DNA sequence: AACTTCCACAACCGCAAGGGA
DNA sequence: ATCCCTTGCGGTTGTGGAAGT
């Protein structure tokens, strides 16, 4: 026995909604509300399944929805919350009046995720890729690490080439435009792309071969991570900032950054469960001062001294919005 | 101008949770 | 306690338009 379909697919229209259908649905819901979605299409004279009607209403027709570009503040909120709760889109959308989980999910997948990747930050863990590699290095024996790194670099190379190639195009486009004071651009020589990749590989190998530089079981220290891994080489992250910052200027946008702390997600011990437990109070704090200010900041980690070397590229190579 | 690729957004699918009978 | 239905959710796919070649 298969699963019972949500509706008779034979008699149901699919695909894009027409303005007439939108009108029918909107006016029906305005009169009768949204009780029992299964009956709504039938009563409203629509050849749609109830589920499709519900989605159309909740994601598009609802009068309280906000359409159009996400603001910088909204993007900040999404990234901040995503670092805590992960892909809990409905939870994130609940903090953004007028935005749906679908909106947030799409925006994340098409824009924000790529931006973070372009900055050298893993969009899943919100940690620098270099930190993740260092974490791997602390948990595996050197021979395993070497094998893993070899495999990983094979994957990275394609990705890096893609990013660097895109950047080269950006450079060409930017030449006619006024230069942003925050950014510098690589030359377009392909040999420099190769050099950058080789440099990453070399430094990764170096880090792997020097495990004593990577103390085990040390949680990620965002303060040091920013001040050494990013701020040390990347002017876009001021060293004085005590917390992690998804400021818009960090993405190469105009406008001021609004700093926020990533203290809730520190180190490898940061689990989804813990994150969720902390969500409530964190969300409450969101509009005010960061009450835990630095609570999660741990002292004493030197992991990013080695880490910093790993991505020893010109600052803007990591920080520019390459994608 | 024609074709291809990329991107953003809308829509769909299947699973899980919640609630009433 | 169990079943069934409805709703909510997150992942995935489809589609139209923009951008690039």
Automatic annotation (TrEMBL):
This is Myb transcription factor. It comes from Melia azedarach (Chinaberry tree).
